[in-house]
Amino acid sequence: MLEAENLECVRGERRLFAGLGFTLSAGELLYLQGRNGAGKTSLLRMLIGLLPPEDGEIRWQGRPIRSQKDDYHGALCYLGHLNAIKEELTPLENLLAAARLGGTTLPEDDAIDALEQVGLAGREDLACKYLSQGQKRRVALARLVVDRRPLWILDEPFVALDVLAVDWLAGIISGHLQRGGMAVMTTHQPVAIPAGRVRELRIG
Ligand SMILES: Nc1ncnc2c1ncn2[C@@H]1O[C@H](COP(=O)(O)OP(=O)(O)OP(=O)(O)O)[C@@H](O)[C@H]1O
Asked: Across-strand partners of 64?
C-alpha cells in the first residue's frame, strides 16, 4: 500500500499544494489531474523520493519511504515524461540496460519479444537516435511489458503515441492492475483503463 499524508509542496516562492493525501492499494490506479504547472510532476518526484515534501509523509507498506530507500526503489518503476533512453544505444541495449539498472536480469529473448509488442520488430539493433519521437517513446514503454514491480509511477505515458499504441498501453496498465499492481499516473487526455479500481486526485 502507498500512502501520502498531509503533503505540502513549495517550489521557488510558490506553494503548489498543501494538505494533500491519498491511499493506494493493490489493483488501484490513481489519476493525477490539474492544469499545467499545478504540481503533478512535482508530486510524482516526491513519490519517487527525489523531492522531499515541505511537510507530511509518504509511506510504502506502512513505513516512511525515506527510511527504506533501497526496498522502496526496488518496488517501483518510474517512467518520466522524458524517455530516459540513451540515443547511441539500440532499443535492445536500452531495454537490457534499464533492466540491469532496476536490479533484474532480462533474458534477451524476452527483451526482443517486448520490443516486438511495442511495434519495434526489425529496429532492435538500430541506434535510438535514428528513431522517431513516437518510436523512442515505445522503447521507453517496452520497459513496462517486462516489469513486474508492484508500483508504477508514470508521467504522461500516453504522450506522442498514436491511437493504437494508446489502446495497447491502456491494456498493459490494466494487466498490471489485474496482477495486483498499483499505478499513479498523470495524463491530460482521458484514457479508459478497463481493469482495476480508478481514483482521481485533482491538484490545484
Ligand atoms: N526547481 C524548480 N524551482 C522553482 N520552480 C519550479 C521548479 N520545478 C518546477 N517548478 C515550478 O513548479 C510548478 C509546477 O511544476 P510541475 O512540473 O510540477 O507542474 P505540472 O502540474 O506537472 O505541469 P504540466 O501539466 O505542465 O506538466 C511550475 O510553476 C514550475 O515552474
From this structure: 59
> Could you tell me the pTM of the whole model?
0.92
Helices and strands per DSSP (H, E), number in the chain = 6, 9
Closest CA to 157 of 123, 124, 191, 181: 191
Helices (H), the chain: 40-47, 69-75, 91-101, 108-117, 133-146, 163-178
CA of 41 to the centre of ligand 1 (A): 7
Q: What structural domains does the chain harbor?
A: 2-202 (3.40.50.300)
Residue pLDDT, tens place only, 14-67: 999 999 999 999 999 999 999 999 999 999 999 999 999 999 999 999 999 999
* Residues lining ligand 1, Cβ inside 6 A: 11-12, 16, 34, 36-42
Please give the mean pLDDT across all residues of the chain.
92
Nearest residue (CA) to ligand 1, atom 8: 11
Q: Which of 158, 155, 156, 110 is nearest to 138 (CA)?
A: 158
